[in-house]
Amino acid sequence: MINFSLEGKIAMVTGASYGIGFAMASALAEAGATIVFNDINQDLVDKGLAAYKEKGITAHGYVCDVTNEEQVYATIAQIEKEVGVVDILFNNAGIIKRIPMIEMSAKDFRQVIDIDLNGPFIMAKAVIPGMIKKGHGKIINICSMMSELGRETVSAYAAAKGGLKMLTRNIASEYGEYNIQCNGIGPGYIATPQTAPLREKQADGSPHPFDSFIIAKTPAARWGTAEDLAGPAVFLASEASNFVNGHILYVDGGILAYIGKQP
Ligand code: NAP
Ligand code: GCO
After folding, report:
1. pTM of the complete model
2. Structural domains in the chain?
3. DSSP helix/strand/coil, 119
4. For ligand 1, atom 46, which residue shows the shortest CA distance?
5. Which of 95, 98, 141, 144 is the best mutation target for the ligand 2 pocket, counting ligand atoms within 8 Å of the beta carbon and taking the most?
């Protein structure tokens, strides 16, 4: 019998008070996992705990900035004491800054790289020793269309997400022998707070040009929803994917396969 169950597993999802992280964590809980999540302040953690409770999920929330190595190690130690050793890690926390590259400060560039690439490195480094001791582990990094494609104003984000694709492949290479699988999920354009500015209606009530652009570039002719990522998340977190390693699973409605609808 194919095992999609996550019963008895502890899944940590970073930045999961809302958005894609929250939807994936909810799906993992539905499959039986115990949910642990972090966010960068107590207000967000409390917001997340209330949202999980509303769905009947008893989650464990921690304030932790994924870029702060000391905070991450202390939080993982606290989780191991209070909940247990992490079996599944979703590196979901991330930001984007949309600024033309030559106008972007090095500080802004570094902040995106720090959260979107250094953060997943630090989180993975902190949980892998426990996974090795347990004899199994799953690490899923949330990549992007920008792991494969560029576009104007997202140079830092694309550099980070391209690097995250290769970090995924390297963790898969280095720790596969310990029965740890590291894969990525590459969402297409998903309707969350992060992409809200790209979907805002124009003053005259017409669609945002970028909204129309994405519809034309997506065979599914729609934006994705965070819930579209639920099934792929459970698959990559479960034993059903134990021989999938170093793979980026694009959940994009077909964007990467499509030249785009003729205007
Ligand atoms: P979102 O709505 O902006 O949520 C991101 C979450 O990460 C927020 O809770 C955020 O907290 C948290 N976070 C930010 N910096 C953090 C840090 N240093 N430490 C811990 N948590 C931190 O984004 P989303 O749309 O759900 O995206 C989630 C992931 O999917 C991101 O990695 C994003 O790059 C990726 N992605 C999104 C799309 C899309 O179309 N939406 C597509 C492909 C990939 P704050 O609210 O305080 O910032
Ligand atoms: C953008 C969007 C994208 C999405 C996502 C696509 O400004 O182009 O924010 O980057 O967030 O990463 O996969």
Report:
1. 0.98
2. 10-190+224-257 (3.40.50.720)
3. helix
4. 44
5. 144
